[in-house]
Write a structure and sequence with these properties.
Elements lengths: L1 H4 L1 H15 L4 E7 L8 H9 L5 E4 L10 H12 L4 H12 L6 E4 L2 H7 L1 H11 L3 E3 L9 H9 L3 E3 L1 E2 L5 H10 L4 E4 L16 H11 L4 E4 L5 H8 L4 E4 L1 H8 L4 H11 L3
Parallel strand pairs: 1-2, 1-9, 2-3, 3-4, 4-5, 6-7, 7-8, 8-9
């Protein structure tokens, strides 16, 4: 039983250890399931997976409070194309057939409850997912989902932000089993001008006082330069909106992923 419970956690931690041993922060690209279409998603995801240490797959949702306009557009397009929560999990199952890279699901609470919490965890685990990022679930308000995730061997990841109090940072970091997701700026996802590090070092220092797991940074990382800034202080670098923007512009998302992955070198 212990091996089952620790499966996702162990795979994620192994990915971070491997990247660190190679002098890198772990590179974590994000892509919305079913974008740019259900049929084209596997090809796009494979381009990102070719350079990823861990892949983050977002379940499209109609009310994504933590997502900026870029990811919202991707979610709307995926939903319009018929990509449901269950269909998103099926896409992860298909990716798992050809890729062994750890995959974490980014989802809000409502899609989990729409499927049923235990059924959702069972489907995610059976598909080969390794963990869940839960941006709208405070870890002290609903322990059922975290407990069910652990039952099915899935790591749980919660978010901290520059506005998080020291007490909140301690609570959240100690609840995370996969890694801690540190939001680099106050606000929603998306590319930004200027440094991605303005408010990060102090937040990471506080998080690492309490965390037993790696701490990654996302929101606002858009290229190799900003990835390198983050890689110097974080265990992992999350990039999402930049890839969606690249697809919308007809640019090569795989080439961008290669460039950003190189920027994660410390």
């Amino acid at each position: 039983m212990t091996a089952i419970l620790s499966r996702g956690v162990q795979r994620l931690h192994d990915a971070f250890k491997k990247a660190d041993a190679e002098g890198r922060a772990a590179f974590m690209p994000f892509m919305t399931a079913g974008y740019p279409s259900y049929a084209k998603f596997p090809e796009l995801a494979a381009e990102l997976l070719a350079h990823a240490d861990i892949m983050e797959v977002g379940i499209p949702y109609s009310d994504p409070l933590g997502d900026g306009p870029t990811v919202q557009r991707a979610s709307e397009q995926a939903l319009a194309g018929g990509t449901s929560t269950r269909a998103s999990i099926e896409l992860i199952k298909e990716l798992r057939k050809t890729h062994d890279t750890p995959i974490v699901i980014m989802t809000y609470v409502n899609p989990i409850y729409a499927v049923g919490p235990e059924k959702f965890m069972q489907l995610a685990a059976d598909a080969g997912a390794d963990g869940l990022i839960l941006p709208d679930l405070p870890p002290d308000q609903d322990i059922e989902i975290a407990d069910l995730a652990a039952k099915y061997g899935l790591a749980v990841i919660f978010l901290i932000a520059p506005t998080s109090t020291p007490e909140r940072v301690k609570l959240v970091t100690q609840a995370c089993t996969g890694f801690v997701y540190a939001v680099s700026v106050t606000g929603v996802t998306g590319e930004r001008e200027g440094s991605a590090l303005n408010e990060v070092p102090q937040m990471l220092a506080l998080a690492k006082q309490h965390s037993r797991v790696p701490v990654v940074v996302g929101f606002g990382v858009k290229d190799a330069q900003t990835a390198h800034e983050v890689a110097k202080v974080a265990d992992g670098v999350v990039v999402g909106s930049a890839f969606i923007n690249a697809v919308e512009r007809g640019q090569d998302a795989g080439a961008l992923a290669a460039s950003i992955a190189a920027g994660c070198k410390r």
